[in-house]
UniProtKB/TrEMBL annotation:
Keyword line: Coiled coil, Membrane, Transmembrane, Transmembrane helix
Acetylation recorded as keyword: no
Residue ranges that the Swiss-Prot or TrEMBL entry lists as coiled coil: 114-202
Name of this protein: DUF5667 domain-containing protein
Record field: compositional bias (Gly residues): 274-287
Region (Disordered): 235-287
Biased composition (Polar residues): 237-256
UniProt keyword Lipid metabolism, yes or no: no
Domain DUF5667: 89-188
Record field: transmembrane: 65-85
Length: 287
């Protein structure tokens, strides 16, 4: 059970420091943007009444922020209401800092090293998806911020993999769980590379050269650093990871294309032989 003391300690460990302006905006809009998406109407009424009551009292921005993060934490572990409201937020959106705050809380709560790495891989998947969504929006001005978020999260994934490599040398990891994680990392690496190529095309199409070039740098670093961790794992463990699902699908597509080409060639040969046979019969008939 989560106690008040544990909650306070958890919040004190967070490195998230939003501006006072953001804290005030969140308090003003938190009723409509968060509590309206809780699962039960009774929950919405309860929290709405709570904030109506608190609105009569003066609160410093620091206390407002603390209260907001506390409610975010409670909702996260009880009903998941904040996740519903902020998980789809993009850089530049009002609720995006809430999404980041929830992630920071998860980083404090998760203790298992492999689970920590899995979490960071999932967050990187979300960051790449956010960047892709923004790249498709011609009017978006937050692509640069999203680029920075992808780069920062890429670094977190690399750091977690480095920690796992050290623990593996010390025989402090479940080898099967580590192999499953590294397989997932390899699969995600190629998926993210393909996504980044598409994002780069989107940015170039709308004339965003600077962010396109920045993304190319991030992609190259990502491929080199994470690919290097994968190669290091295979070398030290002696485990050969399977090809990613995308590579297997590409191989299947190539095989199907080759089969179709062979069938077409066989059909052409059969038709040619049929024509030759028909010509011979006609000639014999004329003789």
């Amino acid at each position: 059970m989560i106690t008040e003391e544990k909650l306070i300690k958890t919040l004190n460990k967070l490195d998230t420091k939003p501006s006072n302006e953001w804290a005030n905006r969140v308090v003003q809009k938190i009723q409509s943007d968060i509590f309206n998406v809780t699962k039960e109407p009774q929950q919405r009424n309860t929290f709405s009444s709570l904030f109506n009551f608190l609105s009569f009292f003066y609160m410093s921005p620091k206390y407002k922020l603390f209260l907001t993060l506390g409610i975010v934490f409670v909702l996260l572990v009880t009903s998941g209401g904040v996740a519903y409201a902020s998980d789809d937020a993009l850089p530049g959106d009002l609720l995006y800092p809430v999404d980041k705050a929830v992630e920071s809380i998860n980083r404090v709560i998760i203790s298992d090293p492999i689970a920590k790495a899995e979490f960071e891989v999932q967050v990187l998947d979300e960051r790449v998806s956010e960047l892709e969504n923004l790249s498709e929006d011609v009017e978006s001005e937050s692509v640069g911020d999203a680029n920075e978020e992808v780069e920062a999260q890429k670094n977190r994934v690399r750091e977690r993999l480095e920690v796992l490599a050290e623990l593996s040398v010390q025989n402090k990891l479940n080898t099967q769980e580590q192999q499953q994680l590294m397989q997932e990392v390899q699969n995600k690496l190629q998926v993210h590379e393909e996504s980044m190529n598409q994002i780069k095309t989107n940015l170039e199409n709308k004339g965003d050269v600077d962010n396109s070039q920045k993304l190319t740098e991030i992609k190259n670093q990502y491929s080199e650093e994470i690919g290097g961790e994968i190669n290091k794992y295979e070398s030290e463990s002696g485990v050969q990871l399977n090809e990613s699902e995308m590579e297997n699908n590409q191989g299947d597509d190539t095989q199907i294309q080759n089969q179709n080409q062979n069938e077409v060639q066989n059909d052409d040969n059969d038709n040619g032989n049929g024509l030759d046979g028909g010509s011979g019969s006609s000639s014999g008939g004329r003789n």
